[in-house]
Amino acid sequence: MKVTVRPRAGRNSFTVDVRWKGERVRRTYADPGLADAVADELRRILVRAELDGLGGATLADLLPSPTAEPVHMDTVGTYADEWVVYNSKANGWKRSTLQNYESIVRKHIKPAWSDIPLADVTRVEVKHWLLGIAKDRKPKTVRNVYRTMSSLLTSACDDGLIPFNPVLRMGRVLPRVKQSRQRPRAWTPEQLVAVLDAAKEHTPDHYPLFLQLAKTGQRIAEAIATQWVDVDFGNQGLRTDRTWVRGDLDETKGRQYRTIGMTI
Predict the structure, then answer these.
(1) Range of the domain at 138
(2) pTM of the entire predicted model
(3) HEC profile for 8-36?
(4) How far apart are CA 31 and CA 233, in angstroms?
(5) 82 has a pLDDT exceeding 80
(6) Fewer CB within 10 A of the end CB, N or C, for the chain?
């Protein structure tokens, strides 16, 4: 894929030259700003087309007529929506991962930056924005918002929409996530028996779930997602390759499955 803008010799006009997968289309514009905007937009579209194709369109369809209005500058809000959709497909995000990014964009990025052109995002303004979020959000949330914003701007830079990512390496100004030094404490055999006995007495319908958790060490979302097809009675094994997230089945953490030995 190659998109270039060249001034025409001896004429006050500029040619956008597009080459992609054996096709070549050229169109001339009198306004250099329009020519540059068209080229930037085409680069962004064709990067995504490498994955999704052009949806039946041709290169010629993508080039506006020479009398077209200048292409509008991408805003953070518009680009953020496209970025989420594209990366979800390109990187094969799990459903829960997609929902997390959609939530960050909807709750934090778009309310503050929706109508701001990508080229107008500054390091100072992003810093003040993040510190504002930190006043009533946990440090982990603030860092997740920052990573999403930085990834979005890096992608915009790769698409040729901005010359550089203005918020790289801002981690040192963000609140630190405190790592817990408390070691997890497992129940004693007596405590486990007491819990199972209480479950059998007070919630007998859920007793099998309590017993499954005790015997397998599964995460509770993995145990809820277990189906009969996962049980191998012959080899006394239980396959764990899905989890229950936000009311739906999803892949396990890290997309790794394991087989757990069952005990009687």
Answers:
(1) 76-173
(2) 0.56
(3) CCCCCCEEEEEEECCEEEEEEECCHHHHH
(4) 73
(5) yes
(6) C
